[in-house]
Amino acid sequence: MVKRELRGRYQKSVLGMLWALLNPLFQIAIYTFVFGVIFPSSIDHYYIYLTAGIVPWTFFSEAVGQGAGCIVNNSNLATKIYFPREVLPISAVTAKFVNMLLAFVIVFLFILAGGVGINPMVIWFLPIIMIIEYVICLGFTLLFSSITVYLRDMEYIVGILMMAWIWGTPIMYSMDNLDPSIKTLLLCNPMTSVVQSYHAVLYYKQLPESTYITIMLISAVVLLIVGELVFARLEGDFAEEM
Questions:
Q1: Neighbours of 48 (CB within 10 A)
Q2: In angstroms, rounded to a whole number, what is the distance separating the alpha carbons of residues 78 and 99?
Q3: Per-residue pLDDT tens for 41-85?
Q4: 175 or 196, higher pLDDT
Q5: Which of 64, 104, 134, 195 has most Cβ atoms within 10 angstroms of its Cβ?
Q6: CA–CA gap between residue 119 and residue 25 (Å, rounded)
């Protein structure tokens, strides 16, 4: 199903899987122009800082945003064939995860070309952050995809939510100079700790703060449990609702 998801998305396009690289590249170019030229940022090597956050964010927004409709969009399978319905959100999130891994080619190219370099003493933590983010994405997708079966507007609500959510995540800006109350508010967003951890490893070349690691782990466990409980509770009437 992951293969089908990837092939189905790119099979009729001229550039195919290259869009997995071009998509984040264009986002990086746009945001770098806005915050590097029009509203100059004080962050050194801004495009590298941006890249380290925008690629993981793209994975999250696409996995949760498009994953919200994965049950409804595969209603022919969900209503006619017996299998664990969790397979649908898992395959949707995994396909986007593969895209993120491909897009990380851009991240490492920018880091190496920009002279920031990689710290071999901390880079081993990168796969751990990726796995935790995957679990967070899966928790949200299980939750939203099950609700979408009953409330079709949820898929569109999630799309709008993502447009606001990106500004509540420190991707284009740094948390260093923010008011403490704003920092506390932003930490309620699980993606804040995720993006800050990516920045720590890839931009600052150090291990993430223990606070971010703790918030990430708690968020991943709680979201996965809540997402699965809600999914299991609503799954019984999927066929009737579709």
A1: 22
A2: 25
A3: 778 888 888 889 999 999 999 999 988 888 888 877 767 767 788
A4: 196
A5: 64
A6: 24
